[in-house]
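Hi R.,

Here's the chain you asked about this morning:
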Amino acid sequence: MSELEALLLLENLQGIGWNRSHKLLTHFGSATAIFKAKPKEWRTVAGLGEAICYELANWEKYRSLVAQQVEMLDRYAVAFLVYGSTNYPLPLSYCPDAPLLLFYQGIPQFKKRKIISIVGTRKHATWESFLRTIGGSFIPL
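And here is the predicted structure, written out as tokens:
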């Protein structure tokens, strides 16, 4: 299992979320190490509980979904940054629920340009009026 596959597993497992993912990554040092660990080792991480340990133990049921995600990332030449890595946008890392994985195409130049992000919108039409309101030129990543 690659580190990307293990990170995608963390993103897909029910009930894990950002806080638990961060605790697990801090405790084990890498996503692959999390899935190499034994259930008794998971139980030593504060705040996981039996339901989460059960999800971790049954990660194999997500293998095909993760394989599809990796294939799609490869097909469209989508790269990724991991929270806390060198190129991860520093301002985004200050958000309490910053994405564990940040996907992009092209060359990430977060330090050299102004960026605005709209994440998790449910009403896709409203962003257009928002951009008209603040003005300026925006270039998709």
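One quick note: The radius of gyration is 17 Å.

Cheers,
M.
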